[in-house]
Amino acid sequence: MNTNILTLASSLSDHDLLARVVVLAAKEREASAELVAHLAALDARPALYAAEGHGSLFTYCTDVLRLSEDAACNRIQAARACRDFPMILDLLGSGAMSLTSVRMLRPHLTTENHEAVLARASGRSRREIEALVAELAPRPDVPSSVRKLPTAMPAPTLIPAATPPAARVEAATLGASEPAPPVSSPPPPLTTRRPVIESTSPERYRVQFTIGKESHDKLRRVQALLRREIPDGDPGAIFDRALTLLLEKVEKATVSQRDGGQCAFVSKSGHRCTERTFLEFHHIVPYALGGLATVENISLRCRRHNQYEADLIFGPRSFSEAREVDRLQERPAVEQPSRQLRDELQATERRGRSAHQARDARGWSTPISRDLGASRSFDIPRTLHR
Ligand SMILES: [Zn+2]
């Protein structure tokens, strides 16, 4: 039968398909609100499910109604909230609030505040509900800490049947007399929790700290902007990128300060170049030869000396190649280079690399200058005065 529904749905026109899913979603919300209302009534008559052989409404929901543990928890919590504040049923039916939102807000609803709180919660996302809950019941900052996590043991192939599932323990608690504790989703299987020492796994560290609203907003913005690169918005991955960028910035600033914002090239006769404009970051051990972007390995050079030293190592560029790069570099500096300009630069670099194998090692194409994006030269004086 369900196969037929799929066939039917697949045969609908675009317009009809869109209209149909809207109708079905509304039906599902109405059915859900109706079930919650009936569970609220059943919750008030425990003898009913007790006579059927069930010790709690939760086990009745999972065993007889075939609800998942999560679904049962959400609906029972919503049912109990509705007994106290019946207007929630309308909010559920209209889709203004989800079962999850109701479950999250329930512990914070009072006779005095429920109308105002529910009005504020209507049409809000889960994240906004979290913020509302935090406002209603502020918690102290999580203490900042960095600690090493124990290495997880690979899950055994067989879990003893006698082990009571953790979710059942919660279920028993939930079904007990009022008030029910806040319900969380069932914990992961016990096997993933057992701390075991195993030296072959990579090291992992738990970093925990509390951030302010501004930092939180920045995090959300970065998550949105990096959606392609970090689809799940993992704060750990973002933290790593932020540290990498910060480290580069600090190292550049340190190099600039150490070299006094001046080309640090010293001739054999002991003369130091006096150029202070169009400075670039020069890798002492070239990037292509494994040189790192560290304070020790980077030094300021004017464009001429950066090129001079690259030529000493990799041989001079051909005249046409040098001209092409110069032509592109001498375009007016802009904050954001056009994609076309970037592509041209990269193509020129690639051609150079294939010709010389290690063109990338030149100071003007180190990772630092590439990341700057806006221009190949780095205007040191401007940076120092910032
Ligand atoms: Zn110089």
Walk across the major sheet and give the strand order.
1-2
User: Which structural class do you get from the secondary structure elements?
Assistant: mainly alpha
Query: What is the overall number of helices?
Result: 17
H/E element sequence:
HHHHHHHHHEHEHHEEHHHHH
Could you describe the largest sheet, including whether it forms a barrel?
2 strands, antiparallel
Which hetero compounds are present in the coordinates? Answer: zinc ion
| Overall pLDDT confidence | 75
Straight-line N-to-C gap: 69 Å
What topology emerges from the helices and strands here?
Blueprint: H1 2-11, H2 14-43, H3 46-51, H4 57-64, H5 69-84, H6 87-94, H7 99-105, H8 114-121, H9 126-136, E1 145-148, H10 166-175, E2 205-208, H11 213-225, H12 235-258, E3 279-283, E4 298-302, H13 303-314, H14 319-329, H15 339-356, H16 367-372, H17 380-385
Antiparallel strand pairs: 1-2, 3-4
Helix pairs in contact: 2-5, 2-6, 4-5, 5-7, 7-9, 14-15
The structure holds zinc ion.
Residues 263, 265, 273, 275, 301-302, 304-305 line the site of zinc ion.
